[in-house]
Amino acid sequence: MTRKPHEHPTGEGEPREQAAEPVATEQNGSADGSPAVADLQAQLSEEKARASGYLAQWQRAAADFQNLKRRTEQEREEYGRLANMALIINILPAVDDLDRALANVDTTLAGLSWVEGVRAIQRKLKGALEAAGVSEIHAEGQEFDPNVHEAISQAPGPHNRVVAEVQRGYKLGNRVIRPAMVVVGNGEGEQA
């Protein structure tokens, strides 16, 4: 008699693996499997808790990433503004020199082409500054404002009013990059 490998040695024909199954069921509990279901439910609730923890960590990481992205963009914009401001501050003395030179041109030279060429350069330079967001601070005749004016002396004139502008001031957007240097009236000679 030849025996098949899955047959029981007694020849009954029942495989050994099947005989081990009822023993496992008996170890886990009763035939209806209620303790096994309880174990599975406990594992499921643990995994749900772990998954919700992972979700919370992911949400925090995503929020941190968005905050980092926003801060990086703000810093990049600020660096760009600072770079523009440094360039503008270095150009302003040349603008002042052009203004003074053209203000002191002799009347006999006023119509010459090279003088008009220098005036055109001045207009282009001021146009480029305006395009970059730079604006002049108007001072003469205005009430003294320490936020935009720098008083260098006092002179007879209306009290707390700018009577003369010594050096023009400039703003970049709403930010003062160079205050206007002014002479402020001390109240002498005011009409009552």
Describe the 3D structure.
The chain is of the alpha+beta class and 192 residues long. Among the domains are: 16-62; 134-186, Nucleotide Exchange Factor Grpe, Chain A, domain 2 (Roll), CATH 2.30.22. Helix content is 53%, strand content 16%. It is built from three helices and six strands; from the N terminus they run αααββββββ. It has helices at 16-28, 34-103, 113-131; strands at residues 134-137, 149-155, 162-167, 169-172, 175-178, 180-185. It has a three-stranded antiparallel β-sheet with strand order 1-4-5. A three-stranded mixed β-sheet has the order 2-6-3, with no helix packed on it. A hairpin with a 2-residue loop joins strand 4 (169-172) and strand 5. The protein starts with 15 loop residues before the first helix and ends in a 7-residue tail after the last strand. The relative contact order is 0.08. The model is unreliable at 16-30 (pLDDT under 50).
CATH superfamily of the domain at 134-186: Head domain of nucleotide exchange factor GrpE
Structural class: alpha+beta
Mean pLDDT: 83
Global Rg:
43 Å
Low-confidence stretches are 16-30
Q: CATH topology of the domain at 134-186, anyone? A: Nucleotide Exchange Factor Grpe, Chain A, domain 2
**If helices are DSSP runs of H or I spanning 4 or more residues, what is the number of helices?**
3
Give the strand tally. Answer: 6
Span between termini? 139 Å
> Approximately how much helix is present in the residues?
40-55%
Succession of helices and strands: HHHEEEEEE
Percent of sequence in beta strands: 15-25%
